[in-house]
Fold this sequence. Notes:
The protein has 348 residues and is α/β, with parallel strands linked by helices.
Amino acid sequence: MRAFYHPEQALHDPQQYMRFGRVVAAKDLPCRTDRLLQALRRHGVQPELPKADGLEAALSVHTAPFLDFLRQAWDQWQDFPPERGPEVWPATFPYWSGRPEEAHRSGCRATGLLGRMGWYLGDLSVPIGPHTWLSTLRSVETAAAAADALLSGTKSAFALCRPSGHHARADRASGFCYLNNAAVAAQRLRSKFERVAVLDVDVHHGDGTQQIFYGRSDVLTISIHGHPANFYPFYTGYEDEQGSGAGMGYNLNLPLPPRSAKLQMLKAIEVATLAIRHFDAEALVLSLGYDAHEADPIGILSLMSEDFADIGAAVRALGLPTLVVQEGGYAVEVIGDCLDAFLNGFTD
């Protein structure tokens, strides 16, 4: 397996995060990458540096105005009064359903207070600091480089992406994610492979990846995640979201009840692998997060570190050119063990 990573991805160092009505320390710590790099080294894998073409890669799935905002936000923040906060952090959110022909949005699907607050107030998990744009660009370049490795004939590649990406939509950052690394990789693979599958295994629904490909039949998107009725991202990730237009039938959500463990996860992966085979995928992008671990500080599932070996084995059994994109995982003390186990299963 080839791997890709740029040290400048660790420069992004968020200072604040809103949780249960309080500003708390951020969860996406730079030291996460150290633990993952150590796991790669235990398997004799030395990450390669990606080449610098992140903006071009990002434009394949994101809008130019959105990228301009991310690139300019920190510099423009410096023009605000000295009492400004340490990061670009919004205080207002527009009322916009995405359907201007409708008088209002449909009722809120989330059942808990946190979800209903977020429906009306927004997302405070993506502050922009002095290095956010650079790290985000390097993360996209990492995913693009791994995709290029598959295009050149490599059978498997690992993109150690940070910041993560699967919550980022075509024109919106959310959930610790600024640009969608997995979507960039899948779009790049489409230059060679007619049908690409994206399998998202993370405690959170891959809502950004779903949105980007929701109207397309050439990319199958599948997400296995904690049930969103009272869990982030709250408003997507339900079974009835199957795609739109040409993409109808090409999106599959497999939400798991809280505290689901290995057995429930493997049953969902079995359903996912059957769908991938039925789709006749020619290549696979695996969005892999370790926040499904029972120790994760913001998770609701109950996997153990060694369970990721079974996930790796199931992915290997598909026999497809596979690009693994790093997503979440915030229990720093266990994420290296999770990757270690996954690689044991995937490369056996």
